[in-house]
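hiii so my PI (J.) wants the whole complex modelled not just the main chain, which honestly fair. so below is everything: two entries, each one labled with what it is. i double checked the lines twice but i was tired so who knows lol
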Amino acid sequence: MTAMNQPKTTNEFAQKDARQTPREALDHWYLEPDAALRARVSNLKFWYGNGTQAIDDVSFPLVEKKVTALIGPSGCGKSTLLRCFNRMHDLYHGVKYSGSIELFPENENLIDLDPNVVRMRVGMVFQKPNPFPKSIYENVVAGLRIRGISKRSQLDEIAETSLTQAAIWDEVKDRLHQPALSLSGGQQQRLCIARALAVQPEILLLDEPTSALDPIATAKVEDLINDLDGKVTVLIVTHNMQQAARISHYAAYMYLGKLVEYNETSEMFTRPMCQRTEDYITGRFG
Amino acid sequence: MQSIADNVGGAISYASLARKNRSKDIAIASLGIFVLFIAIATLLALFIDLAITGYPRLADPEFYTSFPSRKPLQAGILSAWVGTIMVMVVTACLSVPLGVAAGLYLEEYASKNWFTDLIEINVSNLAGVPSIVYGLLALGLFIYTFGMSETVLVAGMVLALLILPIIIVSTRESIRSIPSELREAAYGLGATQWQTMALYIVPAAKPGIITGAIVGLSRAIGETAPIITIGALSFIAFLPESPISSDAPFINFGWLTSPFTVMPIQMFSWLSRPQADFHISAAAAGVVLIVMTLMMNALAIYIRYRARSR
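here's the output for the full assembly
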């Protein structure tokens, strides 16, 4: 099979899909009865500075204190979508958004807010561990310092809680003042998670946080993400279907900048609504 | 399966290919060593020649503690090396903050348009402007227009202008070399542009910035033309006022407005005299100047090394 006769847009392959169209699927988001919305993406479109449209009319809910996974083949726009949530794109010239990412309960459109304020409220962990070239302690409290908190006792306390939350406290408690770059890759990534958690973000974005880690370090990061379930609203991009199945509560499948399907992860992985989703999940495509 | 030999139409002898490639390696390496040898040998020959010629004066401790004199054997470099250090202090205090701020602005804050492109090209070009042109600029602007006299301050100002492009360019390059992950990490935590710069980018770029500043200063230390152009004296038989005094307010700035001489000027004036003994003093002063420059470069290397090992 060649790329030529593959459908170009979600609509095309939705029509070929006898079971249910994505549009219908979106209008009937199946959420658990007690699920509260933290944010809702509505008709979001995004263009890079060179005019490329990377996100096309995406809508889905982000359930509070649950892990939502963004899955899809490379280049489908999932990382781009994730980076809309903390307006990281605004660092680069000429980007354009349309549509909204509403935050609840404030009912504010994140796209209209000051990017700086958005990044104060929405934390992010990157694909490659990127601790600052400073001590472990200074890395954890970096976000607090940026917010003008400098009282030693407060910093110490938050440093300990967030390092514990990121499951790295026992490994670093005796070497808090050593350089963060002396840690292993997996430890650095958990430190970055602790750094993001220290400022109690309303939403925590994880951009393929384990793609640069070995299986053992990956397992540790996955365990800690599992622990965050029920405590923090997490949106995670992952390439690894098993990982998505293991750690996420809800999943959104994207293809060519569009959202194909959004559902509970267990539902999507057992009874996907679209043929395309099923092909991707089972590894026949992507 | 088709092998590569089938595709290229004949077997390749990997052994002879490797031999041929290795002989190219050796040729390039030998050429490199030869060129390096010429460069180092020339420099060493110059330095050793100066050291041998200047040895009688170099070995005399009074050479470093006496003022210039009409009698060659009593002439020293006290006012010259003190003047050099004072001018360097002024140059560093003016050029480093200005150059770093300008580099930071151009690299991080300025929007990219034709105007900043123009500035960028001009800054790079300024680094290649002959130093005597800077001297003329200082003479016309500082001395004739502003009515300043040939003081430590004016010399520091002209040398600061001279090395400003070097510092701006090296600041920009060291900031550009900071990986964008670090930048995104800081912004991702909600840092403003200034917080990102001040807390993370500049500290990470510091070794490069300091190295650039020292390379600039070690160029300034040997500059003669702009200082002669502004009319510095070559015969100074007194020291500028001491910057530190024993009574309040302990620090004074009288030295800034004092006449001065610097090492290259002292050398130049000795060289232009007929007596052979003065040429010995000039050679000795040259050795001292080279050692001062080497010390500054060694400091730059040390800072870079320390930053890398951390």
